Amino acid sequence: MKPNMGGTDRIIRIVVVALAVLLYFTNILTGTLGIVALVAAGVFLLTIVISFCPLYAIIGIDTCPVKK
Fold first, then answer.
1. What does the alpha-carbon distance between residue 14 and residue 44 come to, in Å, rounded to a whole number?
2. Is residue 57 a contact partner of residue 8, using CB atoms and an 8 Å limit?
3. TM segments (predicted)?
4. pLDDT digits (tens, 9 = 90+) for 25-38
5. Which of 12, 17, 21, 42 is deepest in the core (most CB within 10 A)?
6. What is the pLDDT at residue 67?
7. Half-sphere exposure of 22 (CA within 13 A, CB side)
8. Are 37 and 24 in contact (CB under 8 A)?
9. Cα–Cα distance measured from residue 13 to residue 8, given in angstroms and rounded to the nearest whole number
């Protein structure tokens, strides 16, 4: 898998993950919506670690800077 996520995209995803976790553990997001938010945060965290987003690959988006 070739990385297709740039630094800015990864930072935005880190903020979204932190926000979802914070909202869940402060009981603002509860029930099914809270679980869905945590699952989405887990997927985002996985894509951050591997620097590859399968949805980006399907759509054809590449935010990774071009190496010369």
1. 8
2. no
3. 12-29, 35-59
4. 999 999 999 999 99
5. 17
6. 65
7. 6
8. yes
9. 9
Alpha helix (H) residue ranges in the chain:
7-25, 31-50, 54-59
Radius of gyration of the chain measured on its C-alpha atoms: 14
**What is the distance between the alpha carbons of residues 5 and 26, in angstroms, rounded to a whole number?**
30
Q: What are the tokens at 37?
A: 């938010």
CA 18 and chain centroid, separation: 10
**Scanning the structure block, which residue is given the tokens 């989405």?**
40
Query: C-alpha angle 39/43/46, rounded to 5°?
Result: 135
pTM: 0.84
As given in the structure block, the two tokens for residue 21 are: 């976790």
What does the block give as tokens for 62? 């590449």
